[in-house]
Amino acid sequence: MSDYRRARQRISVSIGESVRIMRELQELSQNELAAITGIPQSTISAIERDRINLGVERAKTLARALHCHPAVLVFPGWDVDRESAA
Question: Does this model's pTM top 0.85?
Answer without folding.
Answer: no
